[in-house]
């Protein structure tokens, strides 16, 4: 007897849509049944009524459990944050998070601690990226890889006060960067680079005269696309010289897109729901502060054009659970937006309905490519027999605004206050457990 039977599905894979019923047992997809087959008994039967059923999204970029740095209010413990923000992800059909571990100390020690918290408090399936922030971390790469970390964030922009506010982040210099690439290539691990040039940020900050402004265009003017483009250019050059594959994190600008496109698919582009939707004209003031900044229509359109070419892209939410109280001022507030509930709603609403992407494209973008690149396929990124029963049944045609606080998140504002989305999951399953059902 099955645990759950989901009848009348349009099951979407990266390479096709099939009408079938999905049988779930012991947390995995146990069997698929054709439309004419006799269906077995199950403890729970869900009728999808012909709706699309997708593998749950694999969020390539998640900051669950990252608390505000020194001097900032902390409304939750780390454990509470794992709880609330994993619920938020599930609300939107994100069933796996590739979460970041930031520490100036030992990556492996912090990995153990985060794995233990995730096991206890995360409702999501959770895996971890490391972060290489100092010389000692470079020496720790072999051991971290041995313990299952296969991807490592590298920052280029953060230093000084800004770095402290975000909880003690730090950047590698160019020497450490090429050393990291050489080491990661040797251990077949993937660098994920936050590409912004700090000296150019300083230059544009010094030139800027609008520090009384609170609009998103003002923030963008202090970190324009050239800041990201230069850092992407250097990253690609040094990675190629080190024969190291590379992923560029949260790509936001047409400058960066052009450079990545010239590599014809050999560089993995990650972008976020916010760069695919918002522009600096959005009237949300300092709440919209994020690094790299939300930019202009031409930047947003360059990202969609890249996606439409079918080159490898992963979607990360870059979910930061900061509250309004952390974002009162554009120049002093924290950078970062919520987003882990919005991956599927935005990719389907903006991608399929507005721009004519296929449902298969959505699966490729939101789960399949990330699962393949981060070593999670075929457990994740597919609903073939044997895969984890992580899925979302999607309701469409119903225009709906959803604020983060409705999703279970601690975040108390919406960057998408002006947006209604046409698709929301109405049933979400993670590891065979029904987490959300309407
Ligand atoms: Zn991030």
Properties at a glance:
2 domains; eight-stranded parallel sheet; alpha/beta; Urease, subunit C, domain 1; eight-stranded mixed sheet; globular; binds zinc ion; TIM Barrel; 438 residues; single chain; 34% helix; 13 helices; 16 strands
Along the chain, the helix and strand elements come as EEEEEEHEHEHEHHEHHHEHEHHEHHEEE
Assembly of the depicted chains: single chain
Q: Specify the CATH homologous superfamily of the largest domain.
A: Metal-dependent hydrolases
Please indicate the count of domains: 2
CATH class membership of the largest domain:
Alpha Beta
Mean residue pLDDT: 96
Beta-strand level of the residues, as a percent range? 15-25%
Q: Uncertain segments of ≥5 residues (pLDDT<50)?
A: none
User: What does the main sheet amount to?
Assistant: 8 strands, mixed
Describe the protein.
By secondary structure, this protein is of the alpha/beta class. The chain folds into two domains: 2-54 and 386-396 and 422-437, Urease, subunit C, domain 1 (Roll); 56-373, Metal-dependent hydrolases (TIM Barrel, Alpha-Beta Barrel), CATH 3.20.20. Helix content is 34%, strand content 24%. The chain has helices at residues 78-91, 107-121, 135-146, 160-165, 174-186, 198-207, 216-222, 225-241, 254-261, 273-277, 297-308, 343-355, 359-373, and strands at residues 2-13, 16-25, 28-33, 42-47, 52-55, 57-62, 94-100, 125-132, 151-155, 190-194, 246-248, 267-271, 313-315, 391-400, 421-430, 433-437. The strands form two sheets. Strands 1, 2, 3, 4, 5, 14, 15 and 16 form an eight-stranded mixed β-sheet that branches. It has an eight-stranded parallel β-sheet with strand order 6-7-8-9-10-11-12-13. Strand 2 (16-25) and strand 3 (28-33) form a beta hairpin. Helix 1 (78-91) packs across helix 2 (107-121), helix 9 (254-261) packs parallel to helix 11 and helix 12 (343-355) packs across helix 13 (359-373). The mean pLDDT is 96. The protein binds zinc ion (ZN). Zinc ion (ZN) is lined by residues 61, 63, 318.
């Amino acid at each position: 007897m099955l645990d759950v039977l989901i009848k009348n599905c349009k099951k979407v894979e990266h390479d096709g849509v099939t009408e079938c019923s999905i049988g779930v047992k012991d947390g995995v997809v146990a069997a698929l049944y054709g439309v004419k087959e006799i269906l077995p008994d199950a403890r729970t039967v869900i009728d999808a009524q012909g709706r699309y059923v997708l593998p749950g999204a694999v969020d390539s970029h998640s900051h669950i459990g990252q608390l505000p740095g020194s001097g900032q209010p902390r409304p939750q413990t780390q454990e509470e944050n794992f709880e609330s923000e994993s619920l938020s992800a599930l609300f939107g059909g994100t069933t796996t998070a590739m979460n970041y571990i930031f520490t100036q100390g030992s990556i492996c020690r912090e990995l153990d601690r985060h794995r233990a918290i995730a096991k206890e408090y995360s409702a999501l399936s959770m895996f971890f990226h490391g972060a290489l922030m100092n010389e000692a971390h470079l020496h720790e790469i072999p051991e971290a890889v041995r313990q299952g970390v296969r991807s490592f964030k590298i920052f280029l922009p953060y230093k000084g006060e800004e770095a402290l506010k975000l909880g003690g982040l730090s950047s590698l210099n160019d020497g450490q960067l090429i050393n990291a690439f050489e080491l990661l290539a040797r251990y077949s691990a993937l660098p994920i680079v936050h590409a912004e040039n700090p000296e150019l940020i300083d230059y544009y900050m010094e030139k800027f005269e609008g520090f009384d402004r609170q609009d998103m265009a003002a923030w963008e003017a202090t970190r324009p696309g050239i800041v990201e483009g230069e850092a992407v250019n250097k990253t690609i050059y040094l990675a190629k010289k080190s024969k190291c594959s590379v992923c560029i994190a949260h790509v936001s600008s047409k400058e960066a897109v052009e450079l990545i496109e010239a590599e014809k698919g050999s560089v993995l582009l990650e972008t976020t729901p916010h760069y695919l939707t918002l522009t600096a004209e959005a009237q949300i003031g300092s709440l919209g502060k994020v690094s790299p900044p939300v930019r202009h229509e031409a930047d947003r359109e360059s990202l969609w054009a890249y996606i439409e070419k079918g080159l490898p892209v992963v979607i990360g939410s870059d979910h930061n659970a900061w509250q309004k109280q952390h974002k009162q001022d554009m120049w002093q507030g924290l950078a970062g937006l919520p987003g882990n509930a919005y991956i599927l709603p935005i990719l389907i609403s903006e991608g399929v309905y507005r721009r004519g992407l296929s449902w298969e494209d959505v699966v490729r973008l939101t789960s399949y490519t990330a699962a393949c690149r981060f070593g999670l396929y075929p457990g994740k990124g597919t609903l073939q027999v044997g895969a984890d029963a992580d899925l979302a049944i999607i309701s469409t045609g119903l225009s709906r605004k959803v604020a983060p606080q409705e999703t279970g998140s601690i975040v108390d504002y919406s960057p998408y206050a002006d947006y209604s989305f046409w698709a929301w999951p109405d049933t979400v399953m993670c590891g065979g457990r029904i987490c959300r059902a309407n």
